[in-house]
Write a structure and sequence with these properties.
With 281 residues, the chain is of the alpha/beta class. It has one domain: Alpha/Beta hydrolase fold, catalytic domain (Rossmann fold, 3-Layer(aba) Sandwich), CATH 3.40.50.1820. It has ten helices and nine strands. Strands 1-2-3-5-4-6-7-8-9 form a nine-stranded mixed β-sheet, sandwiched between helices. Helix 4 links the parallel strand 6 and strand 7. The longest helix is centred in the last third of the chain and has 19 residues. The two termini are 28 Å apart. Keywords: Hydrolase, Serine esterase. It catalyses: S-formylglutathione + H2O = formate + glutathione + H(+). InterPro entries: AB_hydrolase_fold (IPR029058), Esterase-like (IPR000801), S-formylglutathione_hydrol (IPR014186). Belongs to the esterase D family. This is S-formylglutathione hydrolase.
């Protein structure tokens, strides 16, 4: 599969690049960003952190705002940031034009309902197609970590819990921990997956953790001044589920922080170290 380079900027001795390619899984062209640390030019393969962004975001938000490249360069860690949904003229969005569903809001699941099922298969794209592409075109090893924010934090947790052995590390910032029980998740799940709630369980981290065959340690940071904390994010659901399942979870409630990239930038270095340690970077 060919890649079209869209841009290239040097950063901390490495390179931030954006690429376009055709996704067979999603049935449309997709754009992703990659940060290649300076070690990528020294031979050998490097571990990869896949970053999943939140509602309304593209591949650009994390790379521009998180301040992750300095530490990634120090650790020798490749970072890959995909888009948050399929895009294009043939891809349906929210019928009411609302920002929390459809374009920019793929929820990292595989839709089963029309008209969404044809394109909205972000889980298979993130877990299978994109890593295969990255590992074929860059000095990327099969040592993979996954992280994300908000909807992307939900995606990171679900990708890791549903795919034992696929990732060696996982973390999240302010994830949607229990989407079956919050307005964002209920809207997305009812449209993408249908009204049968038993199908929703397959995409809810607070449910999946009880059934996980691999107890990969989870690192979750959450700001206590996050406007969405009580209504949408519900970290207590994940905490309780992890406790009952005996699943290792480090949940840190960070005083004074909100839902923004100022919060992510404040703790991203610690998350990158968490992944680098697990990935042997």
């Amino acid at each position: 599969m060919s890649l079209e380079n869209l841009s290239c900027q040097k950063s901390f001795g490495g390179w931030h690049k954006r690429y376009k390619h055709h996704s067979h899984v999603l049935g449309c062209d997709m754009v992703f960003a990659v940060y290649l640390p300076p070690q990528a030019e020294q031979g050998g393969k490097l571990p990869v952190l896949y970053w999943l962004s939140g509602l309304t975001c593209t591949d650009e938000n994390f790379m521009h705002k998180a301040g992750a490249m300095r530490m990634a360069a120090e650790l020798g860690l490749i970072i890959v940031a995909p888009d948050t949904s399929p895009r294009g003229a043939d891809v349906p969005g929210d019928p009411d034009g609302v920002w929390d569903f459809g374009l920019g809001a793929g929820f990292y699941l595989n839709a089963t309902q029309e008209p969404w099922a044809k394109h909205y298969r972000m889980h298979d794209y993130v877990v299978q197609e994109l890593p295969a592409l990255v590992e074929a075109h860059f000095p990327a090893s099969d040592k993979r970590g996954v992280s994300g924010h908000s909807m992307g934090g939900h995606g990171a947790l679900v990708c890791a819990l549903r795919n034992p052995g696929r990732y060696q590390s996982v973390s999240a910032f302010a994830p949607i921990n229990n989407p079956m029980d919050c307005p964002w998740g209920q809207k997305a799940f009812s449209r993408y997956l249908g009204e049968e709630r038993s199908k929703w369980r397959e995409w809810d981290a607070s449910v999946l953790i009880a059934e996980a065959s691999e107890k990969l340690p989870l690192l979750v940071d959450q700001g206590d001044r996050d406007d969405f904390l009580a209504t949408q994010l519900k970290p207590e659901a994940l905490q309780q589920a992890a406790k009952l399942a005996g699943h290792p979870l480090t949940l840190r409630l960070q005083p004074g922080y909100d839902h923004s990239y100022f919060f992510i930038a404040s703790f991203i270095d610690e998350h990158l170290r968490h992944h680098a340690h697990a990935l042997g970077a």
